[in-house]
Design goal:
heterodimer, A: about 150 residues, alpha+beta, Thiol Ester Dehydrase, Chain A, five-stranded antiparallel sheet, 3 helices, elongated, B: about 140 residues, six-stranded antiparallel sheet, 4 helices, about 25% helix
Chain lengths: ~150, ~140
């Protein structure tokens, strides 16, 4: 069982992640995007963006960098081999674009138990170089009981 | 800028659909792009050893592909300001034949004051819904 006492716990800010153009293209190809602003610099600039625009789920890369701290936290006691992804949401203040340098802070929003299972929800706030909020990634993991 | 006139939209209106064909190559490509190298997404022996019927697609791949129906409709990936899904069923991807994921987008709600539209996406594979409450809010 996940320790309910970690509800509200915040983990340290992650190291900056520099969003590369080719990473945006690679990710866009992987999610079957044909939207020109994910691939073509001129199309992105013509649409008013400073650089290539990342697909709407790209922020998962930043979220993933914030997860190890909590997954390896002995206080949280999460058995990762029993984890299933339950829900995922991304709320954007603005789209992520290439050459953004992003950091994130993860907070445990809630821990609930559902019979033998636990459900843990993380809010990961993602910030740019100016420390402005770019995206909040909300992820719920289901930890199956023994 | 977008070509869509919010006043012309109606709740329930279909905005597009697409069948995504996932193969094992798609899963390996997504693993590399996302950094999620959990072997349940590419190794049959490992998937079976943890009690799964076979290799399954990353939920985040299904989520990332499904929203493309809404992106293609609005024409600008940067207009998706809020996107959430529930992962309801796995998409099993056969080594030889792959898997098809059918995504249909419909107008779920219209907010004239904020100039936003909620697109509700249904995603199914082998006739089973694989995403629940898949909703993308688009800023027009």
């Amino acid at each position: 069982m996940v320790n309910p006492n970690v509800q509200g716990k915040k983990y340290p800010e992650t190291a900056p992640y520099l969003v590369g153009r080719e990473k945006v293209r690679e990710f866009a190809n992987a999610v079957f995007s044909t939207n020109p602003i994910n691939h073509d610099l001129f199309a992105a600039q013509a649409a008013g963006y400073p650089d290539l625009v990342a697909p709407p789920t790209f922020a998962v890369l930043i979220q993933e960098r914030s997860l190890p701290a909590v997954l390896s936290d002995p206080e949280a006691d999460i058995d990762f081999s029993r984890v299933v992804h339950g829900d995922q949401r991304f709320i954007h203040t603005r789209p992520i674009v290439a050459w953004d340098e992003l950091t994130s802070i993860l907070e445990v929003a809630s821990v609930k138990s559902l019979g033998a299972h636990s459900m843990i929800t993380f809010n990961t706030e993602i910030f740019d170089r100016n420390k402005d909020l770019v995206c909040t990634a909300i992820s719920t993991l289901v930890v199956r009981g023994e | 800028m977008t070509h869509i006139n919010i006043a012309s939209l109606e709740v329930g209106q279909e905005i597009g659909s697409h069948t995504f064909h996932f193969t094992r190559d798609s899963l390996v490509r997504y693993a590399g792009a996302s950094g999620d190298f959990n072997p349940i997404h590419y190794r049959d022996d490992f998937a079976k050893s943890v009690g799964l019927d076979g290799v399954l697609a990353h939920g985040m791949l299904t989520m990332g592909a499904a929203v493309q129906v809404a992106v293609n409709w609005v024409g600008d990936a940067g207009k998706v300001i809020d996107y959430g899904v529930r992962f309801t069923k796995p998409v099993f991807v056969d080594a030889n034949t792959g898997a098809d994921v059918l995504v249909i987008g419909k107008v779920g709600a219209i907010d004239l004051e904020n100039n936003t539209v909620r697109i509700d996406l249904s995603a199914s594979s082998a006739e089973l819904a694989v995403l629940g409450k898949a909703q993308a809010v688009i800023k027009l």
